[in-house]
TrEMBL record:
It is an enzyme of class 2 (transferase). Belongs to the thiolase-like superfamily. FabH family. InterPro entries: ACP_syn_III_C, ACP_syn_III_N, FabH, Thiolase-like. It catalyses: malonyl-[ACP] + acetyl-CoA + H(+) = 3-oxobutanoyl-[ACP] + CO2 + CoA. One of its GO terms (molecular function) is beta-ketoacyl-acyl-carrier-protein synthase III activity. It comes from Candidatus Desulfacyla euxinica. This is Beta-ketoacyl-[acyl-carrier-protein] synthase III. The active site is at 114, 256, 286. Its EC number is 2.3.1.180. It is found in: Cytoplasm. Gene3D superfamilies: 3.40.47.10. Keywords: Acyltransferase, Cytoplasm, Fatty acid biosynthesis, Fatty acid metabolism, Lipid biosynthesis, Lipid metabolism, Multifunctional enzyme, Transferase. One of its GO terms (biological process) is secondary metabolite biosynthetic process.
Length: 330
């Protein structure tokens, strides 16, 4: 069987920039230096009020189509990874399908928090290998800034909005997805939590709003940091071991863009140069599932990724979820 190939990638971030200095002017008890030292984030992108997750995904998809040389009419399947869909029903993928005018494609969402892009790639692999689909659009898209308590400086400083996309098929030419690896831990999944919106807190009420149950809550941040670093490192080792390559042989690490200090800890643990880490965190913040998809597309388009480069995409997110993908860019 031919391997799974990436025909094209795309990404899109909203034009509106919110800097750390802007947060200060909004009255948040923070400074540019404080945020940079703790996270590495200097600014993030904010979607306009009328812009939805599927709108961002649409723009990223168009760029992926252009690189791949295909159209929406060629698709068999559309998968959207998101925790901020346009609506709970229909799925964000259905809204995106309508905007792309691709009625022939099957559509559904995947919810795996910041690991969503890799989970979606893994699902797409299965459809391709079984022959259930021949051409798949994978989109990771988030409007994270609408999930935030803008008075909580431990959380609101981190997040931004945007989307990344990839077109996948089986073939003999193009970048090859060598493997994907997924893990979950529901027992410890409440460290990153948005209680409202599901059956646990429905319908919305004055009481649930007053209790801030409809905003993202980051619990035990220090413990989550250590857990995330461990799973990032293990995911990189797993991908390398599965493909019989040394970690040192990997040319680029494009992780979920969570925290610069995490990347530094990962590099120290693995004895790697930070020059091998492709980082967009400083200009976009954490865009949950979309962050490594956006970073991958930018690394391709700015020429950082060269032919025959080996690329690892390690991810970690709420749920808990984590994993990795290893790609040979050929």
């Amino acid at each position: 069987m031919d391997p799974v190939r990436i025909l094209g990638t795309g990404s899109f971030v909203p034009p509106k920039v919110l800097s750390n200095f802007d947060l200060q002017e909004m009255g948040l008890d923070t400074t540019d230096e404080w945020v940079i030292q703790r996270t590495g984030v200097r600014e993030r992108r904010i979607a306009d009020p009328e812009v939805t997750t599927s709108d961002l995904g649409y723009e990223a998809a168009l760029r992926a189509f252009d690189m791949a040389g295909v159209s929406a009419k060629d698709l068999d399947l559309i998968i959207v990874a998101t925790i901020t869909p346009d609506t709970c029903c229909p799925a964000a993928a259905n809204w995106l399908q309508a905007k792309l005018d691709a009625p022939q494609a099957v559509t559904f969402d995947i919810s795996a928090a910041c690991s969503g892009f890799i989970f979606a790639l893994n699902v797409a692999e299965q459809y391709l290998r079984t022959g259930a689909a021949k051409l798949i659009l994978v989109v990771a898209s988030e409007v994270m800034t609408r999930t935030l308590d803008w008075t909580d400086r431990t959380s609101c400083i981190l997040w931004g909005d945007g989307a990344g996309a990839a077109i996948l098929t089986l073939g003999r030419n193009g970048p090859e997805i060598l493997s994907t690896h997924l893990h979950t831990d529901g027992v410890n999944g409440q460290d990153l939590l948005m209680p409202g919106g599901g059956s646990r807190t429905t319908p919305i009420s004055h009481e649930s709003v007053d209790k801030k149950l409809h905003v993202l809550q980051l619990i035990e941040a220090n413990a989550s940091f250590r857990v995330a670093v461990r799973h990032f490192v293990d995911s990189i080792k797993e991908a390398a071991s599965f493909n019989n390559v040394a970690v040192e042989e990997i040319d680029w690490f494009i992780p979920h863009q969570a925290n610069l200090r995490m990347f530094q800890s990962m590099a120290k643990t693995l004895k790697l140069s930070m020059d091998k880490f492709y980082i967009t965190l400083h200009k976009y913040g954490n865009i949950s599932s979309a962050s490594c998809a956006i970073a991958l597309d930018e690394a391709v388009r700015d020429g950082s990724i060269k032919k025959n480069d080996l690329i690892c995409l390690p991810v970690f997110g709420g749920g808990l979820t984590w994993g990795s993908a290893l790609i040979r860019w050929s």
